[in-house]
Design a protein that fits this description.
This protein has 9 helices and 5 strands. It is α/β, with parallel strands linked by helices. It has a single domain, classed as Rossmann fold (3-Layer(aba) Sandwich), CATH 3.40.50.300. Strands 2-3-1-4-5 form a 5-stranded parallel sheet, with helices on both faces. The mean pLDDT is about 90.
């Protein structure tokens, strides 16, 4: 039986990363924050003193990406987030990271080094491009205002100076870039379930997602 895949897509600060980690822990699945791949590429370009919008610089950084850099705390900075949406619009970057993500879903790494029974991948194009056959696809979203408020708290908790108006502007600009890019734009898969988290806490979000996963797991076992 193929590993079970949970595909979570949606815009920045919608809560999909928190949901993905909780689902992975609950079901004993491997988790991949695919956004971290793009953040790592964007950050590498910035650290090299280059422009994240430069196709050659970004593609070279993606090809040379070291998985160890996915643990860099700087990946959560506003600068890395902004750079990630720029490099993600570059076809050469997406091509370089495509195989990595597909291999992860096909053979999710377990804690003992062997493949485990499933994976949770969160990003922008998991259900549409990376894992179009995933049995569970959820498009996690929230209003721009709610997401800006969450991101502001996150930045302030890390000691970064930020104001709500600027964060909201950045959120909207990033949404526009992610939705308008020619290669794998951010959009829900046709068969994805929409989950609006604007007025929900993490327990409510998790409970709604868990019902979807449990139903799909039961259907797979009964097939």
């Amino acid at each position: 039986m193929k590993p079970f895949v949970i595909a979570l897509d949606g815009p920045a600060a919608a809560g999909k990363g928190t949901l993905a980690k909780r689902l992975a822990t609950h079901y004993g699945f491997a988790h991949l924050d695919t956004g971290a791949l793009y953040r790592a590429v964007g950050l590498a370009v910035l650290k090299a003193g280059q422009d994240p919008s430069d196709p050659n610089a970004a593609a070279a950084a993606a090809q040379a990406l070291d998985p160890a850099t996915l643990q860099d705390p700087e990946l959560r900075s506003a600068a890395a987030g902004d750079a990630s949406s720029k490099v993600a619009a570059i076809p050469g970057v997406r091509a370089a990271l495509f195989d990595f993500q597909r291999r992860f879903a096909a053979s999710p790494p377990g804690p003992d080094g062997r493949s485990c029974s499933g994976s949770v991948l969160d990003g922008r194009d998991i259900g549409t491009v990376i894992c179009p056959d995933a049995p569970v696809k959820i498009f996690v979203t929230a209003s721009a205002e709610a997401r800006a408020g969450r991101r502001l708290k996150e930045l302030q908790a890390r000691g970064e100076k930020a104001i709500y108006a600027r964060v909201l502007e950045d959120i909207r600009a990033r949404d526009a870039r992610d939705a308008a890019r020619a290669d794998a734009p951010m959009k829900p898969a046709d068969d994805a379930v929409h989950l609006d988290t604007s007025d929900l806490d993490i327990d409510q979000v998790f409970d709604r997602a868990r019902l979807l996963v449990d139903r799909a797991l039961a259907a797979q076992r009964g097939a």
